[in-house]
Amino acid sequence: MKGSDEVVEWLIHGARPASNTREVVAELCDRLIGCGIPVWRFGLFVLTLHPQIMGQAFLWKPGVGVEVRSASFETFETEAFRQSPVRRVIDTRASLRRKLGGENCPSDFDVTRELKAQGATDYLAVPLFFASGGVHGATFATQQPDGFTDAQIAAIESVIAPLARVAENRLLERTASILLDTYVGNNAGSRILAGQIRRGDTATINAAIWLSDMRGFTRLADRLPPQTLVDMLNGYFDCQVPAIAKHGGEVLKFIGDGLLAIFPIATGAELGPFSCSGPLLVCARQLSK
Q: Are 4-184 and 207-288 in the same CATH fold?
């Protein structure tokens, strides 16, 4: 299809200048429409390596832009996700298409019924194969009266492989950033990604240091079941970390039941009195009993 080769070339060359997945999705859809493919709704669904988020969805509509939704690990265990077209194409590794026009269109998925009610006439879900071996998904829908033509479907299929490469590249960049932020802190992670990786590289930080642990943890560890202990630690840190972040702090390390954080101080600024928030103190007292 005329113009689709240019979309493929753009993806092959890294989808520049789009710097993140949201921008890639927005420009991809604009380019597809520009070459005559009447995309009305597009979705990119990727699994992530994140301590709290199992996956992300990037959903685009004309005039609305790209909406980013994050799904928890629990979401992936729900019946709604198990019965979704995206889960179907990931599991089967095969494309799925539903023509939604007319009275007798298939109605085996909640999302296709919803899209039909909104005026969609055709729906295509495809697997995205990453070089790492992972399988992710993308969906295309149109309101064109007769749905996608054969030429339009062929043009869409031609962009799938290069789109998978770009999506994987952006996902790897995000994963590296998340892992560094999680295990070494935001500021240190940014410096590492910027190239400060040589042994002996140092930086001076003017900061107040927070170091705390849970009172009586050793005694609790001896008498509580492992999962109960882990759940207690999660609850304990869920109280501390948001309070630290709210006051401009950065968690550097979790040490068993201990936590190390810093509160950077601007050059020339004076360190005033600091007090913990009420919820943090209440939570710490409750969990240490």
A: no
34 burial (CB, 10 Å; 0-12 / 13-18 / 19+) is exposed
Whose structure tokens read 């999705």? 25
CA–CA dist 122, 96 (Å, integer): 11
- One-character DSSP codes across 143-210: --TT---HHHHHHHHHHHHHHHHHHHHHHHHHHHHHHHHHHH-HHHHHHHHTT--STT------EEEE
Pick the CATH number of 207-288 from 3.40.1790.10, 3.40.1010.10, 3.30.70.1230, 3.30.1640.10: 3.30.70.1230
Predicted pLDDT at 204: 79
Domain locations in the chain as residue ranges? 4-184, 207-288
Fold adopted by 4-184: Beta-Lactamase (3.30.450)
Structure tokens at 230: 């882990």
CA distances from 252 to 53, 185, 209, 227, 260 (A): 20, 5, 10, 24, 6
* pLDDT tens-place string over residues 201-229: 777 788 899 999 988 898 989 999 999 99
- Which pLDDT belongs to residue 37? 95
Q: Taking CA 201 as the corner, what is the angle to CA 196 and CA 204, rounded to the nearest 5 degrees? A: 100
- In angstroms, rounded to a whole number, what is the distance separating the alpha carbons of residues 167 and 23? 11
